Amino acid sequence: MVFVLAVLGPSVGLSLLALRAASREALFVERRFEGSLLAEVNHAAARIAEVLQVVMEDLAAEAERIDSDVAALARWKKEEPLVSVPFLLQDGRVTISDAEGDGGAAFLATFGPFLEGRSNLPVYDDIADVYRKQMRADVSDGDGVSAGAVPFPYDTPGRRNDGGKGQESAAHEETEGAEFLLAPARESLSTAGKTEAPVFEAFAPDPRAKMVAPKGFVQQLVSGFLKNDAAVEEETYQKAVREGFQMLERNVLPQAALQAPALFMERAAPVRSKTVVQGRLFADLRREGPSGILPRLSDEGLELLFWTRGREKDGVTGCTLNMHLLRERFVAALPEILSDVRVLTVLNEAGEPLFVPPGAGGLEWKKPFVAREISSLLPRWEVGAWLVDPGMIASLARTTNLAVWLLVAVLLVTVATGGTVVLRTLSAEMRLARQKTTFVANVSHELKTPLTSIRLFAEMLLQHRQPDEARRDDYLRTMVSEAERLSRLVDNVLTFSRRDADNPDCIKERLNLAELVRETVEQLRPHLILHGFSLRVEAPEMLPVQGHAEGLRQVLMNLLSNAEKYSEGCREVTVIVCSEGDEAVVEVADRGVGVPPSQAARIFEEFYRGDDSLTSTRRGTGLGLSIARHIARKHGGDVTFRPRDGGGSVFSLRIPAGNDATRKGAGA
Hints:
Blueprint: H1 2-23, H2 25-66, H3 72-79, E1 83-90, E2 93-96, H4 102-115, E3 121-126, H5 127-134, E4 149-151, E5 154-156, E6 159-160, H6 168-174, H7 176-188, E7 212-214, H8 217-228, H9 230-242, E8 246-249, E9 272-280, H10 282-288, E10 291-298, E11 301-309, E12 316-321, H11 323-333, E13 342-347, E14 370-373, E15 382-387, H12 392-462, H13 469-498, E16 509-512, H14 513-530, E17 534-538, E18 544-547, H15 549-565, E19 572-580, E20 583-590, H16 624-634, E21 638-643, E22 649-656, H17 660-666
Parallel strand pairs: 17-19
Antiparallel strand pairs: 1-2, 1-12, 3-9, 4-7, 5-6, 8-9, 10-11, 11-12, 13-15, 14-15, 16-18, 19-20, 20-22, 21-22
């Protein structure tokens, strides 16, 4: 029970946990790859956004030289390869170079009404940035505010932190979007007693103080809410629809997102984009910042319109961008495109890669492993990573799964084997302990019985209670027999106690085994005849062996004593001495009860007795046969058993005969 509770139970439990973890190994491997590749994708997207930022800054610097000079437009286009169709907006009218031809006519048809304020165009924006602007944080990337700290315009609900300027009702209306998005964060701060204030108040030591946050803080905060809370994301998109925004769908279905954990909403194709679109006037864009890039999606693809304020009032300078050259810059800005594990590239608005490295053909471009949208300035453009071998994750998972199964199998086999050995050893030790306890009781009984008889007859002889001379002789013979029995018992106990130690007294010498057998039988004959036994000896005159006389005598006495104890009706004992090949053999045959087949393999074990109860009619300690075999094997031989034809048992002592005994006995 202790073994099961302390070893087997925990081992099985750990094995089940390991197998359960192995069954989800594909997800774990995918998560590791997803995290690593997503970091590369984010880095690539940041570099592309940086390219756009550098392009916009360079064009803004060049546009300052043009200002209101229409003649300089052609020169600008010639000097700057990125400029496709340059333009000027003066006094509400768009002017282009006369050399533009059909491209200029198409530009005026597409962008002229929008730039002149006569119509609107779809304007793409990040949904988080939309609500950042609604929160009046004024930290947009293109509004001319330098990076660093900028003030929040609100410090308490419905009240501007601008010295009291503005209407409280208008302020409350403008913060509605912030209140809506920041509700989950406000709930998380309820333990701090700030459930009545916007979440950004928690970052100020004084709720009335003017709040300061790093550039982009609120947008990042809102983006985090949308990413990590599916309910907030869904409600935000519904709010955007109610406010007139149109939703876009992504061109790709990232495969890693299909097995997203509970933190992320599981998505099915199509995947909703974080970019939203709404028709707006150019005048609105000019109020939001001094310059910008306006993307336009059409059947011909993506067009990018750059604009910046001129030095004259209401003047604007700008151009459309050369998308072919811009694509080349994007590809050049990417990190290593092809590695042993993944392919990293950019997909355009049609879901087609800008660059396909050699050897990467055949990939499903609309099913990247991980992907992310680049920017609202490049709507429906994605940076994605594709696994070179789509089955790699499954293969790694199978290998790990197989390894775990093998380890669990080895663990269980080891535990089962070790447990079996431990339990068998424990069972054997417990059985041995019981046998030793029984042995002590039997030895005590065996010692007490002859001592009682010797004492009784000695007292009778001492007190002269028996006048009959013949009876006195019987008493003396009985005392001698009991003394011999007691001596054999003591010899067995001493031999057993010394069996595992080297015995320097056990010196072998050349002796006549046949003579030794006859002497031993004659020594026991009076006792056996007294108990009704007929005893017959068949032995040659000479059978030389190399051995220890007292040890071999003890073997013979134990075998004869065993025959005496287990003979009941027919009390007949025959001792045969002979040689078989190079062995000397002494057989002790009886007509006793025999040995049941189930006990034949155990009769030579220490302390083993067919009936070891104290009430047994057969006395003994369970050491006789064990000691006999031990002594025989010390002589290079053995003691064996076989059933006797007609009933009874035959125990045989076999030791090397002749000169071979010296060689074999010395090596024993």
